[in-house]
Design goal:
With about 150 residues, the chain is α+β, with helices and mostly antiparallel strands. The chain folds into two domains: about 80 residues, Immunoglobulins (Immunoglobulin-like, Sandwich); about 45 residues, no CATH class. The strands form two sheets. The protein has a three-stranded antiparallel β-sheet with strand order 1-4-3, with no helix packed on it. A hairpin with a 5-residue loop joins β5 and β6. The chain is elongated. The two termini are about 25 Å apart. The model has no long low-confidence stretch (mean pLDDT about 90). Bound molecules: calcium ion (CA) (2 copies). The site of one calcium ion has 8 residues, from α2.
């Protein structure tokens, strides 16, 4: 799961709220709130967009089209593409290979069973139980060398 903060500004001349739509998304993508408060011209609000990244082997990307429609007339007022990417398991530096550089990063994050991962080390928790221990290392070993 990934969450993105989107800042919406009413750059039009009318006071209105906006409904937020998400289309073309292969992964579940949810804006909260789905409708902004009433915004005066020039006013802004923050929407949190949550993307549920599908599990699976290898890398994958999803591009969701976000659009806003004024609740005055339902017409589209703005749009943006939100692209999210699933990394290879163990690719801690995000370069699409699992290699010695990732091992160095993993080693720096290795703490032990039931010790919460430090900030920035979330990628080292490869079995998703919130620690970075030898069970995670076992998963890392299986990924090492991919896609090579
Ligand atoms: Ca890497
Ligand atoms: Ca773990």
């Amino acid at each position: 799961m990934v969450q993105v903060e989107v800042l919406l500004t009413n750059s039009g001349p009318l006071t209105t709220s906006y409904s937020i739509y998400v289309e073309d998304n292969a992964w579940s993508t949810t804006p909260i709130p789905a409708q902004t408060p009433v915004l005066d011209p020039g006013a802004s609000t923050t929407v949190i967009v949550t993307v549920q990244i599908a599990e699976g082997p290898g890398t994958a990307t999803n591009a969701a089209l976000l659009s806003t429609r004024s609740d005055l007339d339902g017409r589209t007022r703005g749009y943006a593409t939100l692209t999210t990417k699933r990394r290879l398991l163990g690719d801690l530096n995000g370069d699409d290979v699992v290699d010695a550089a990732d091992f160095a990063a993993f080693s720096d994050c290795l703490m032990g069973p039931d010790v919460a991962v430090a900030g920035g080390c979330e990628g080292a928790d490869l079995d998703f139980d919130l620690d970075a221990d030898l069970a995670d290392f076992a998963v890392f070993q299986l990924s090492f060398g991919t896609p090579g």
